[in-house]
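Hello,

Following up on my earlier ticket. Below are the two sequence lines again, exactly as submitted.
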Amino acid sequence: MKTVDQPSSAPSLADLIGTTWTRFWFTPADAWPLAIVRILGGLLALALWASYAWDLEIWFGPHGMISPALLGAWRSPWSVSLFDATRSTAGLLLAYGCGGLVLLAATIGLATPVTTVLGAIAFSSLLHRGPMLVGPADDVVAVILWCLAIGRSGDALSVDRAVGAWLGRPAPQSSVRTQIALGLVRVHAGVIAAAAALAQLKGDVWWNGTAAWWLAARADSPLVDLTGVFLQSEYLMNLVTHAIVIFEIVYAVGLWVPAMRRVIVPVGLGAWPLIGLVAGEPFWGLAMAVLAFGCRSPSP
Amino acid sequence: MPASTPAQTPPPPLSDAVRGGLTVALALYLLGLALCVVGNSGSGSSALVRTLKSKLFSPWMTPPWLDLGYDTRLTHGLAEDGDHRFEIRRLDDPAAPEAVILPGPAMHGERAARWRRLARATAVSEADPEREALLPSAVSRGAFVPWYTNDVSLRVMRHLPPDWRDVIDGLADVTGRDEQAYAARVRLVDGDVQLITSTPREELAPLVKEPAP
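Thanks for your patience. The regenerated structure is below:
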């Protein structure tokens, strides 16, 4: 009996992966979503930057607590910071002031291709100058700033664009760089949510439903006092605890399923700030919401 | 009548070479991101992951502050997850006012949170042989100059929230309690920092009386 090979119309797995990869990373994207991430992320970066202002000299000054000698023993050998070069209070304040201005310029979209890169360098430099002061919000904002440095976030909602329109320049087209930046935003949003869920599940309190109590009963961190509510209802305390973990897991997975993404991203815009509020890490919650905003683009 | 803005021609598609280069760069970054998440976990990491990460990825992922585990656990209900604070008192002046508390009551938001992180790092790092005594001496040194002193007592206090069940059963107050996480006397003698740590009472061996003959 003679067999005849039927030509297969189904693409191979390699083709499927290649097509999906190309569509995800290299489909030109509109700048609007990234521009909104730039404005919101820039405002967050400015707020975190400003939180150093009062104690800058006490921490990093010539006689400050976190001396270069201490950093030498504390940091990774690959750590570098522009602030390491400041030897006087005036130099420190100058570097800090310039960094703040660069972040402000990036936020409003002034000379965006330059200021977003300089802003990311300045922000990570400040974190390297005092790694023991850094919180989870700083980590997320650093990621956002590097994504902004890659994409063309100044093509919309920016001073650059306003000046371009005034000069009669045409509106910029969609860009692959912007799509790569938005793709990285989504990858990090998923990774950070998954890593947080995994880290939490290593603790008993996230299984026995009391984690929300331990967050609420701390002395200073909580912004809202939920202890009274949790003392009234054990079930509510359990519900809040489990809801946080379940949301993080569903969010990390849902970002990659288009039907789920349409629901989970808008939910994330509200849920992340609420989790931040309950956890006493409001800036972390807001930074995660900014990442969620970057996942709203209709890319695959 | 305003001049019409010219329509911009669409950008040319990426060449295969550029797309290939970007694919390699993105794949490398994603691999580095995965190794950083696995290698910076609070549970530790395998020798293989540690070596791969430190040799191939940390050199270029650390400077932009991307060598991170993102393991934001929020709490595990442990003592070290409680809020920490400094209490610094100058010892060379009996008339000196009460201890300075950092973060103070006037500090709020992220500024106060950074002080709490510094206090926590000071207490927790004492269990790390490579970092032991570094932060207590550094923090105390920071107090020497503004106070014109060479002799301070440094304490890190942490707040222990009560167990939910204990509050319900009336065995504990909802406000919790404070415990001393670290304490030392730090002084500057001939330019050198001397650190005299105080051992918590519960860690001392109990005194055993000789039995009566």
